[in-house]
Design brief:
This protein has ten helices and 20 strands. Helix 9 links the parallel strand 15 and strand 16. Helix 8 packs across helix 10 and helix 9 packs parallel to helix 10.
């Protein structure tokens, strides 16, 4: 009986060895077949055909990509780069601020309404293979080594377009870039809010007629415009069909000499985009170290080899700043779909714009400038808006403590304060808003769960002189300050107020002092 068992074990071992050897032989046969196919042109023999530069340098970049036989190529889908493990896991105490359903869904509902049109072309969400890269982009010869910023600017500048948009309230400016010899141009859709007319200036000093738009994608904040190509022709920028990685070096461009260098700081997932940042956008986005100035909005983010890896679109200035760009692999399907669409005229109702809640979070920070001092000095009424983590919301204790301290402090300056009341009647959107952001960091004190509470506030107003589609600006921004620690459960309103109120009062007093200083400076200037 023992011999039979040993015989079976030995036979199983032999079978396993044979399977491994068979697998190696099959792999060798596949490699030989691929080698001989590459000799007759059915597979590239010496260059990588995907439009991406290697992380470690330029040795493997597609230097001779224009020589690839486009009719015979067969490219397997490119795997997307996964975000770092654990990046989509919320940290304790860093919950999303409590919002009303209207706050959370306003932008998503707007997008859903636009996309309910049954005649809208069905567009794939992302490019995954080389076949989705337009042939004219593949014919662009890339440099053999990484370029420094001056050389990169010289390469990118001929494809940049300065855009000027006319609105009922004035005009705004932005940047676009050429992606087709036929005159297709990429820019940010939010720049077209209420547009009544538009003009395009090319890098050589000439202008081009904007015939209209071919496609808009509110869920990506992208507009594809059609301009009339000049007789001398246009120079397009090729787009990468792969997702860039964290820490990759990049440069951002605005029309025409505006260029800055930086890197990709994160590749946020959809949970972070929609839940943490409350952004209603789809697709792959990159967070960069490059500020999205008004001149950079709609402009390209380019790697050192001249490939567009993203489009600069969104800057969240509320709280911690985040600079966001839509990945190029999500723009390629839009370009392909736009070719089959007829040109339509730009009209004021083309895009209704983002909600005021999102516009405030995208407000440009002008704190410390003369214009900010002027606006600050003339404020008479303030709306208080609190962003609290869920851990501080349930009892309503902290919200009331903030309201009470703000009321006591501002009454000394003659401000009319509209306290935060999520359940109350809506407040006029043009009233200056002091946004108070509280965070709660979990900690243990004497073997009990508690929260270390911090506050940061910023004053956001509408500036009639702002030369942008978003006229909200930040004119004062306080530093993040720890105001005390309270128990996670069972804390009484009296004890919580005794702990948090002293530093909250001091924080709001610094706000009053800053406003008084602005008034004195304004009197001196006059």
């Amino acid at each position: 009986m023992g011999r039979k068992k040993r015989k079976k074990k030995k036979q199983a071992s032999v079978d396993t060895t044979q399977l491994v050897k068979g697998g190696l032989v099959c792999a060798g046969i596949v490699a030989v077949i691929y080698f001989f196919n590459s000799l007759d042109g059915s597979a590239p023999s010496s260059t990588t055909v995907s439009l991406v530069t290697p992380q470690g340098g330029g040795q493997n970049v597609n230097q001779n990509i224009n020589q690839v036989d486009l009719n015979r190529r067969k490219q397997a889908p490119v795997k997307q780069q996964a975000p770092p493990q654990g990046s989509d896991q919320p940290k304790p105490g860093q919950e999303t601020p409590q919002l009303t359903p209207a706050d959370v869904d306003r932008d998503a509902q707007m997008i859903a309404q636009i996309f309910a049109d049954k005649n809208k072309p069905v567009v794939p969400t992302t490019a995954t293979s080389l076949s989705e890269v337009p042939a004219e982009m593949l014919q662009v010869e890339l440099p053999k080594s990484a370029l420094k910023l001056p050389d990169l600017l010289e390469r990118v500048k001929p494809s940049l377009v300065k855009l000027t948009f006319l609105h009922s309230t004035g005009k705004s400016e932005g940047t676009g870039f050429i992606v087709s010899n036929s005159g297709l141009l990429i820019t940010g859709l939010h720049l077209l809010e209420g547009v009544r007319g538009a003009s395009a200036d090319l890098s050589d000093g000439t202008s081009a007629e904007i015939e209209g738009y071919r496609l808009i994608s509110p869920e990506h904040d992208i507009a594809i415009l059609q301009i009339t190509p000049p007789e001398r022709g246009l120079k397009l920028l090729p787009l990468s069909n792969q997702l860039s990685h964290q820490e990759a070096p990049v440069a951002a461009f605005g029309a025409f000499e505006d260029a800055v260098q930086g890197k990709i700081t994160a590749v946020p997932d959809q949970r972070k985009m929609r839940t943490d940042w409350r952004l209603p956008f789809a697709g792959n986005w990159l967070e960069t170290s490059l500020p999205v100035s008004p001149n950079h909005q709609g402009g390209p983010v380019v790697n050192p080899y001249g490939l567009v890896v993203a489009v600069n679109l969104i800057q969240l200035s509320s709280g911690k700043e985040h600079h966001l760009a839509l990945a190029s692999k999500d723009i390629l399907p839009l370009i392909n779909a736009s070719r089959n669409q007829e040109v339509k005229k730009l009209t004021p109702n083309l895009f209704a714009g983002f909600s005021n809640d999102l516009k405030r979070r995208m407000a440009r920070n002008i704190a410390g400038t003369d214009r900010a001092q002027e606006l600050f000095a003339n404020i008479k009424q303030i709306r208080l808006l609190q962003n609290l983590p869920n851990s501080l919301v349930a009892s309503g204790v902290v919200r009331e403590i903030v309201n009470n301290n703000a009321r006591r402090s501002f009454s000394k300056s003659g401000f009319e304060l509209i306290p935060d009341n999520p359940a109350g009647s809506p407040v006029a959107e043009n009233i200056p808003t002091l946004q108070v952001i509280l965070t709660a960091e979990p900690q243990r004190i004497r073997a009990k769960d508690s929260f270390k509470v911090s506050v940061q506030a910023e004053l956001i107003v509408i500036d009639p002189q702002e030369n942008s589609s978003n006229r909200f600006v930040i004119i004062w921004k306080g530093k993040k300050t720890d105001i005390g620690s309270i128990l996670a459960e069972g804390v009484s309103p009296e004890i919580a107020s005794r702990i948090l109120s002293p530093k909250l009062k001091s924080y709001f007093d610094r706000f009053r002092t800053a406003q008084s200083k602005s008034k004195r400076l304004l009197k001196q200037d006059s």
